[in-house]
Write a structure and sequence with these properties.
Blueprint lengths: L6 H28 L10 H55 L6 H22 L2 E2 L2 E2 L11 E2 L10 E2 L8 E5 L2 E4 L4 H5 L5 H14 L4 H50 L3 H25 L4 H4 L2
Antiparallel strand pairs: 1-2, 3-4, 5-6
Helix pairs in contact: 1-7, 2-3, 2-6, 3-5, 5-6
């Protein structure tokens, strides 16, 4: 049994088809104006999910890059401080060798001792080096200066009073963390303590009892500084490698995101023109399908 096609059915079908082409044209117009294949998750849930994953990955990469930049700055500041320590110790060594000269009188030894004493105070300032308000040689106790007077006796002599050896690490990858600090106790408290070695040299100079043993202890401090600088250099190399890897990862992830959500504008324009032609054809045919009414005859 055949179904009778009424004029009302023809009208409804024509309107439905026009609505479909309107929706398609709206879709391609949105893609052309935004440059994106999807403008809301419902456009393509699978593609939208992948795009969200890539965007989340890019956010993580941005944070890792910031961490790497901060780590490089911290390590550079630490290396500069250790370089200053090494320069001061080299000067102290020259003065110590000069002080070991038996021809020095009391006045000459006192002058040498005074210069070494001043250099010792300068090393105290270096020990309190900061970056962004944080003391770099204080372990995780970054808010308190490691070289300071006794808290219970503000008038006491300043000494290196920090024993915090905790690591400061920055994450520069999902499973990649790099230690950025050198605990001050490993720099200033090794081999009897750097400040103690200098204090003893000053005392022995003033008393005329300076021996080559003091020079050996001073050389041990210099060797320790060089060792710590080599550690800093290795960490900086690793951090720079992480930076390079993150930059490459950012480029590849951005390309994948673009592939998922960026529209091919040339193809979008072709599709839009195609839908426009379909709509014009539908309107033209619809004008013939719809039966004329009395109003048409009264024009």
């Amino acid at each position: 049994m055949s179904t009778r096609v009424t004029q009302n059915m023809l009208n409804q079908n024509m309107l439905f088809n026009l609505s479909r082409t309107d929706q398609a044209m709206q879709k391609y117009q949105d893609q052309a104006s935004s440059g994106k294949k999807i403008n809301k998750p419902s456009d393509d849930p699978v593609t939208a999910g992948r795009a969200m994953y890539y965007r989340s990955s890019l956010n993580e990469i941005d944070q890792y890059k910031l961490n790497a930049d901060d780590g490089i700055s911290w390590l550079t500041t630490t290396d500069d401080a250790l370089d200053e320590v090494n320069s001061v110790l080299q000067r102290v060594r020259e003065l110590t060798v000069q002080g070991l000269n038996g021809t020095n009188d009391d006045s000459a030894r006192t002058a040498i001792a005074e210069e070494i004493s001043q250099l010792k105070e300068h090393l105290g300032e270096v020990a309190n080096s900061q970056i962004a308000g944080k003391f770099i040689f204080a372990g995780t106790d970054v808010k308190n200066p490691p070289y300071r007077a006794d808290e219970n006796d503000p008038n006491s002599v300043k000494e290196f009073r920090n024993s915090n050896k905790e690591k400061l690490e920055l994450q520069v990858g999902q499973n990649n963390s790099v230690q950025i600090n050198i605990p001050g106790i490993d720099v200033f408290q090794q081999g009897g303590g750097l400040f103690s070695v200098l204090s003893n040299i000053v005392s022995n100079l003033k008393s005329g009892t300076l021996t080559s043993d003091s020079l050996g202890k001073l050389d041990g401090q210099i060797d320790n500084i060089l060792t710590k600088r080599s550690e800093i250099g290795a960490r900086m190399n690793r951090m720079e490698l992480s930076q390079s890897r993150l930059e490459n990862l950012e480029v590849s992830t951005t390309a994948l995101l673009s592939k998922e959500e960026d529209a091919d504008l040339s193809q979008v324009i072709i599709n839009l023109k195609s839908e426009e032609n379909v709509q014009r054809a539908a309107l033209s045919i619809g004008a013939r399908v719809i039966q004329p009414s009395l109003v048409d005859f009264l024009r």
